[in-house]
Structures are given as C-alpha cells and as structure tokens.
Amino acid sequence: MQTDFLVIGSGIAGLTYALKVANACPDKTITIVTKTQSDETNTKYAQGGIAAVMDFDKDSFNKHIEDTLIAGDGLCNKEIVEIVVKEGVERIQEIIEWGAQFDKDKEGGFSLGREGGHSEFRILHHKDVTGKEMERALLEAISRRPNIQMLSHCFVLDIITQHHIGFLVTKSTPDIECYGVYVLNLNTQKIEKISSPLTLLATGGNGQVYRTTTNPGIATGDGVAMVYRAKGRIENMEFIQFHPTALYEPGVRGHSFLITEAVRGDGGILRNQEGDAFMVRYDARKDLAPRDIVARAIDNEMKINGTEHVYLDCRHFSKEKFIEHFPNIYEKCLSIGIDIQQHMIPVAPAAHYSCGGIKTDEWGRTSIKNLYAAGECASTGLHGANRLASNSLLEAMVFAHRAYQQSVVAINEATPTTSSSISNYLKVGLDEIPSWKSEGTNVPKEMILITQSVKELKLLMSDYVGIVRNNERLYRAMKRIDLLYEETEALYEKTSVSPQLCELRNMITVAYLIVKCADFRQESRGLHFNTDYPNRSERTQNIVL
Questions:
Q1: Is 473 a catalytic residue?
Q2: Could you tell me which of 142, 144, 148, 136 has the C-alpha nearest to residue 6?
Q3: Using CB atoms within 10 A as the burial measure, which of 1, 106, 164, 167 is most buried?
Q4: Which is nearest to 83 in space by CA: 460, 363, 294, 310?
Q5: 150 CB contacts (<8 Å, ≥6 apart)?
Q6: Cα angle, residue 465 at apex, residues 462 and 469 outer, rounded to 5°
C-alpha cells in the first residue's frame, strides 16, 4: 500500500504528529502502524506527569532550563533544552484543547507536583495515570479524523532504503533515503510493503533488554535497531535510566509496577533495612535528588546490606490524600497485602528510560532522508547524560510538532521534477520496491531457541551493564552478545520471520549498542557509572555510532 505520511508507533509522539498532519493536510492520507493494539505504548504507563512552567509567579523558563542542564550532567544541547522548555507550554495547551484533563486545586488552577531534580512545583498530572489520560485524549481526537487509518497488530520488520532496490548502502553513504517499511501483518501472517514519502519513527524505548523494567513487553528497541541496520546514526546508548522506585515483588520479573517519583515529591522517604533515611548520606537534595544519584544510592544500600530492595515510607501520608493522588498505586499495594499507612513499600531500581537513541536534529530529522524520529527512540539532545523527571512527554510533543512542521513543508514543495529526496521517492514508485524475500525459510521447530536467548540477554545486561559497570563486565557482556548475535542471525536466515524472532534480533542490536557506547565512554557521567573510571573527564562529547 501507499500512504502520504507513515507513522510507526501509537504513543504520544506518533499520535501528536499524525493528528497535526491530518489537520493541516485533509487531502492526504496518514497511516499509523502499531505492533499490538493502539493504546499499548510506553506513554500509557507514564504515571508521574509532564513538566512545564505553568506558574510564572514562582517559576520561570530559566529555572526549568537550568534544572534540565544540571540533570544532563554536561551533555545536554542547550539550544534544544531552550526549545523544549519554551515551546512545551503551547503544546500542553493544545492537548488540553484536544480533551486531556489535568488535576486542579480548589481554586481551579493546575495542581502542580514536584519531582527529583526540579527546583519548583511544575509537574502537571492526572492522578497517577497521566500518560494514559493523554493517550486517551489523543486517540479520541484521532478517531474523528477520516484521513487517518490505524493498522494494529502489524510488526515492522525493516526500513526500506536504496539498499532494497539494488544500491550498496554503507555508513559513509551520504544520502540514504527511506521509502517506507516492510511489515509482518499478524492478522494475515503475510509480509507487506508500505511505501511513503515521509516516515516518522515513534517506536518507544528498549527497557525489555533488561530483566526488570517498568516498560511494557513491546519496548524492545525496534526503531533504534532498524535505523542502525539501515546505516543511520545512533548516539549515547550507554545512558539507560533506572527508575529508583519500582515495586519489588518476590519472583516477579519483566514488567515491574512503577511507583512514581511524585510519591517522593509529595514527601515519601527512602529507608534501608534498618529504617535509616539513607539519602541524606548521598546528596543534599536527599530523596529529591536526580534519578541517577538516587538509583546508585539504592543500589549501594542493597549491596551493603545484601538485600534485594529498600523501602519507600509513606506511613505519614494522609490516607485520603494518597488515594486521591495515587489511586492506582494504593490499589496495587493493597492487592499484595501492603497497607501504606502501616507498611513501607518495598522498592528497587528497574530499567526505565533510554536517554540516547536515533540521532535527530532540531526538527526531528534523522541522518536518513525522509525519515523522522520522535519520543523515546530519538536522541534529540534534551536529556544529555540523564533525563530530568517528567521531561519525556514534553519532549515527545515538541518534536512531534516540529517534525510535522518540517514534513508538511517538504511534501508540499516536492514534485517529480524537483531535486529532493522526496522527488526521488516519487520517481522510484512502489513497483520498484521488491517484495520481501522469504523463499527457502521454514517455521522454527523449537521456540526454546528464541525464548532462551531472550532470557540470556536480559540476564547478562542486568548483571554486567546495569546501574554500575566496569571494563571486565562490559568485555564479558560483549563476548556473550556476539555469540547470541551469531546464533540468532543463523536462525533468522533459515526460518520464517515472527515477532518473537524479530524482537530478539532488535534487542541484541540494542544491547550491542549500549555496551559499545559504554565501552567508548571512559569516564563516569550521569547514568553511566564505570568503577574503572569513577570520575568525570574534562571532555564533553556524545558517542555516535
């Protein structure tokens, strides 16, 4: 099929972009592709909120910019930070107009929260399900646009470039162009090609590379892996943010329940097994220090005491206030026998957010022509070495808007006779893009070959490339990733594709990129802490692969 605008992913970035393009170009078709149902995204699981300067009497753009730069530990692009902070307020007003509802105080103003690393109260929220509320509003707005079609249960296999029509493409190829994607339609079990002059990747994060993560099962780094295979530029993958406070449940692995940072913003206190409020020993900001500092402090306390978790103490909270602000957390804790007024909540760090990803410019453009990226899969320069809490939803909306602005200009200016990458796409035509070659492949005889490799990968990444790393661990991780890569590629060559096999391939690629970037960064900065290089270097540089 052909479409005018192609969006891969149905989180806040993808939906915002699609909605804006649909409004601006009512005569164009927009196709959104998602590998499960439309609302199963990282956005849906964002609890805490979205950060923006809404109270100019107490807060300011400069304060938000400074907080972001401090959290990013010297690697933020200041121009990008200023763009996101200043343009973000207008983007929030837009989503409110589209129907998103944020909590308000008794006077009718926004009830603003405060989280780690923020100097002021500036977090808008909807209870403890902010992302879900924003997703709901966007999906409802999308449903009213007849020129948007949603293709659910379609797994994107690869980006289509000149490589697929007979040209040699390498990292040094100056003008790699995207013509669309190959997808495995899970409804028909057929591999189809979707061509488009403009494609936006909004594929989310890669937390499933780790054994314990707050991310849903879909977060397997598909977009990053596809761009790397297509010879696009990836940067700063070593900066994996571990959320300090995921609910610890004995025996539960994979998708961990998140205890939002807003709980600490409201006064929750971290305590160790002895009941000591330990954060005072690690940072003057105590429980409201940035996430990298809090996660390392918890990791250290767990190692000192030989335990698998610490505690978050909310016993001093008003029960009514806690239920009002955090109803999902209250219900979840109660379901496993934890009464927050009598018991402390057991918590431990879990892989949460990738600060690196597909390298983009200030308009969301990647190094591959006609291809944009927004949301967690993109590395915009906002987060640097560590993301400031609740900046991610803001970033997604700002760059979805900027990518939309650039896309509309590009498609309106392009004709078959003009010289541009879109014009080249128009000349190629759908018929010149070959169908997916699957001759000679068979259905895999044993799924254990895939599932066991997934377990191995998650285990080695958690043990060797977690919150604290060293050179020996990184070396061992890379050796084992190399072996998993060889085994999986051999399986891929001789068996028919499946989501499980493709996700494994993507996760192995993402794991490789994390380890490779971590190996190159011979210092400790932000989320990357290497005991062989415990200090920051004087150089500030991005690692680009």
A1: no
A2: 148
A3: 164
A4: 363
A5: 10, 32, 34, 38, 142
A6: 125
What is the Cα–Cα distance from 267 to 339, expressed in whole angstroms? 17
Give me the phi and psi of 436, to 5 degrees please. Answer: -65, 130
For the chain, list the domains and their CATH numbers: 5-46+128-238+355-431 (3.50.50.60), 246-350 (3.90.700.10), 448-530 (1.20.58.100)
Whether the predicted model's global pTM rises above the 0.70 cut: yes
Tell me how far apart the alpha carbons of residues 165 and 232 are, in angstroms, rounded to a whole number: 17
Q: Are 89 and 52 in contact (CB under 8 A)?
A: yes
User: Which pLDDT score is estimated for 361?
Assistant: 97
With tokens 């509802």, the residue in question is 101
For 156, phi then psi, to 5°, come to -75, 125
Q: What dihedral angle (degrees, nearest 10) is formed by the CA atoms of 20, 26, 31, 32?
A: 30
- Whose CA is closest to 238, among 539, 535, 537, 521? 521
pLDDT band at 193 (very low <50, low <70, confident <90, very high): very high
Tell me the DSSP string of 275-323. ---GGGGT-TTGGGS-HHHHHHHHHHHHHHHT-S-EEEE-TTS-HHHHH
Task: Provide the 3-class DSSP secondary structure of residue 88.
Answer: helix
Tell me: the pLDDT tens digits for 239-263? 999 999 999 998 776 788 999 988 9
Relative to beta strand 269-271, strand 310-313 is: antiparallel
Closest by CA to 88, choosing from 408, 399, 409, is 399
Token pair, residue 70, equals: 């401090």
What's the order of all strands across the beta sheet hosting 148-151?
148-151, 30-33, 5-8, 198-201, 371-373
| d(C-alpha 52, C-alpha 66), whole Å | 13
Q: Are 158 and 437 in contact (CB under 8 A)?
A: no
C-alpha of 377 from chain center: 5
- Length reported for the chain: 545
Q: Are strands 240-247 and 378-379 parallel, antiparallel or unpaired?
A: unpaired
CA atoms within a 13 Å half-sphere pointing along the CA-CB vector of 403: 35
CB of 366 within 8 A of CB of 359? yes
Task: Check pLDDT > 90 for residue 477.
Answer: yes
326-351: pLDDT as tens digits: 999 999 999 999 999 999 999 999 99
DSSP for residue 23: H
Please give the pLDDT value at position 168: 82
Summarised one tens digit per residue, pLDDT across range 9-46 is 999 999 999 999 999 999 999 999 999 887 677 676 77
φ/ψ (deg, to 5) at 449: -65, -30
Catalytic member of 291, 296, 521, 525: 291
pLDDT band (50, 70, 90) for residue 472? very high
Which H or E element spans position 468?
strand 468-469
73-112 pLDDT, tens per residue?
A: 999 999 999 999 999 999 999 999 999 999 999 899 999 9
Alpha helices in 113-244 (DSSP H): 130-143, 222-229
Residue 531 has what DSSP assignment?
T
3-state secondary structure of 69: helix
